[in-house]
Amino acid sequence: MTTTQQSSTKQDILQYLLKQEQAIAHALAEALDISPQAIRRHLKDLEAEGLIEYKSVSMGMGRPQHVYRLSKKGRDRFPNHYGEFAVSLLDTLEETVGRDQVSTILQKQWERKAMEYRQLLGEGSLAERVAKLVELRQSEGYMAEWYPVESSDASQQTHNQFILKEHNCAISNVAESFPSVCGHELEMFAAILPDCQVERTHWINQGEHQCGYLIQAK
């Protein structure tokens, strides 16, 4: 295997753990279609680089299994468009004009972003607009995806409820220092989908491995 192939496989492992939160070596090998021996070599390298960590979990009568997940350093490998500069800028603004004024500025920013999204989403079906929203978020560095909510009754499958997931936060540094931006994100999604009710189901800032939203037609 070439160095480029090894690098690509390691990135695939990191992306899988980002989406699934955690996995054992065997599951990773099956998902990525490589041998258990190869996956263990990659996991050992990633652990040495500080990008992943593991805990030993007993599974039945056999030996404990190593369950792998991303470390904070591993999460930081994924796109973060604003980073420390944005946090520093907001800190400077807070010192200059006060936290209330910074909150007003952030609110104006999401309102402007909402107007931009509304124009780009158009007037299609709810599924088409959610798909376009996810595409826009992906272009901004979010590892986003969406899917319809399955009905418990197969004969009554719903077409007006969707889950939007973001497996990373492209503005994580900002969100940690100014958590109000997460509230603005929720308000923004509701504003660009005015015919829907939008609820947060998961939140990275509360220790969960993704941000998730339930979008349902009113």
From TrEMBL:
Record domain Winged helix DNA-binding: where: 13-83
Pfam (any one): HTH_34
InterPro entries with a match to the protein in the record: ArsR-like_HTH, SUF_FeS_clus_asmb_SufR_cyano, WH-like_DNA-bd_sf, WH_DNA-bd_dom, WH_DNA-bd_sf
Domain of life, source organism: Bacteria
SUPFAM superfamilies, A to Z: Winged helix' DNA-binding domain
Parts forming coiled coils: none
Name the UniProt record assigns to this protein: Iron-sulfur cluster biosynthesis transcriptional regulator SufR
Organism of derivation: Coleofasciculus chthonoplastes PCC 7420
Lineage: Bacteria, Bacillati, Cyanobacteriota, Cyanophyceae, Coleofasciculales
